[in-house]
Amino acid sequence: MTTATLTSKGQITMPQAVRQTLGLQTGDKVDFVPDDAGGFKVVALRKDVKALRGRFAGRVRRPISVEDMAAAVQAEAAERARRTGRVRAGRAKRSK
């Protein structure tokens, strides 16, 4: 197991074996992604979008349609308006 020590400034030096495995170079960024066990995974951030493939796999059971997303946004906006007592200003219908 590879270990590192946290400094008083909240910094760590990533061990060479980890940097090599992740393909990290000086100046590269890493992301700490929470896992289901309560820990974190260290993920190297790449500039190439292809590196993101599969990163979010398994986080949703089924794809969400655009219509479902729009309905969820509308429902949340209506709920927030109801809680705050604000009504969204819209165009008043003109009577003839």
Rg to the nearest angstrom? Answer: 23 Å
Helical content, roughly?
25-40%
User: Could you tell me how far the N terminus lies from the C terminus, measured between alpha carbons in angstroms?
Assistant: 78 Å
Strand content: 5-15%
How many helical stretches? 2
- The general outline is elongated
Q: Name the poorly predicted regions.
A: none
Question: What's the β-strand tally?
Answer: 2
Order of strands, main sheet, comes to: 1-2
Helix vs. strand class: alpha+beta
Mean pLDDT over the full residue set: 82
Give, in order, the helices and strands: HEEH
Largest sheet data: 2 strands, antiparallel
Kindly describe this structure.
This protein is an alpha+beta fold. The protein has a domain at 16-61. It is built from 2 helices and 2 strands. Strands 1-2 form a two-stranded antiparallel sheet. Strand 1 (29-34) and strand 2 (40-45) form a beta hairpin. The protein is elongated.
Task: Give short descriptive properties of this protein.
96 residues, alpha+beta, two-stranded antiparallel ribbon, elongated
Short description:
27% of the residues lie in helices and 12% in strands. With 96 residues, the chain is an alpha+beta fold.
